[in-house]
Design brief:
There is one protein chain. By secondary structure, the protein is of the alpha+beta class. The chain has a single domain, classed as NADH Oxidase, CATH 3.40.109.10. 38% of the residues lie in helices and 15% in strands. A four-stranded antiparallel β-sheet has the order 1-2-6-5, with helices on both faces. A hairpin with a 5-residue loop joins strand 3 and strand 4.
Length: 230
């Protein structure tokens, strides 16, 4: 985090050192993979409540992610208020109607066909929580002086990965939603112009009878996503 004070490098021992034996390492990696492959993007949410403490703890996990120069260029707005969720849905669906009416282009719309999406976004009201992720393009000191943040998209993207993993680990499902453009979120949530909305994450418990598109569970095999150079 940037400050006016000169900060000097100071080395400390690795805190909270965590490690496993060579024999346990593959078991741990495999167990985590088996856990994460059960994560599903779900659009059908139940009305089962989720405590604020659970959401706060998951966001705390996201805030532990690495970032450029440790500036932590992100802000999360967690929303359970029904009126706020309604306004977000209305504004998002307005953008989505333009998207599906031709703004996206034929190729993009065709790519979405196996996912089964359209401009109707009830999950934005049905999910007990919406988490809006903002990327902070620059920071400001108390007197309004700006300072630069570094690797903002990369850093915020890593934090979002941490957040999705934390929500899944807490027994919740999540849906990432990115209406384009998303400037309406700054106004609705009173966030400064220095921040850019990156995504809306709807999260909660899956409804009884919730469905997912079969296409979404087709993942590329390892040999298509990995090159090993030994």
């Amino acid at each position: 985090m940037f400050t006016r004070e000169k900060l000097e490098y100071q080395a400390i021992d690795v805190p909270d050192r965590f490690g496993v034996s060579a024999g346990q390492s593959l078991d741990c990696a495999t167990a985590f993979y088996e856990h994460m492959r059960k994560r599903h993007t779900v659009r059908d949410f139940s009305n089962k409540p989720v405590s604020k403490e659970v959401i706060e703890t998951c966001i705390k996990t996201a805030g532990s992610a690495p970032s450029g120069a440790n500036h932590q260029p992100w802000h999360f707005v967690a929303i359970s208020n029904p009126e706020h969720k309604r306004k977000i849905r209305e504004a998002a669906e307005e953008e989505e109607r333009k998207f599906y009416a031709g703004g996206a282009g034929d190729e993009w719309i065709k790519a979405l066909e196996p996912i089964g999406t359209n401009d109707h976004k009830p999950h934005l009201e049905d999910a007990p929580w919406l988490i809006v992720v903002f990327a902070q393009r620059y920071g400001e000191l108390e007197d309004g002086t700006r300072y630069k943040n570094y690797y903002v998209p990369e850093s915020t993207g890593i934090a979002c990965g941490f957040l999705l993993a934390a929500l899944h680990h807490a027994g919740l499902v999540a849906l990432t939603h990115t209406p384009n453009p998303m400037k309406f979120l700054n106004q609705l949530l009173k966030r400064p112009s220095s921040e850019k909305a990156l995504m809306i994450i709807a999260t909660g418990h899956a409804a009884e009878g919730a469905k997912v598109p079969a296409f979404a569970k087709i993942k590329k095999p390892l040999d298509e996503i990995l090159t090993v150079i030994e």
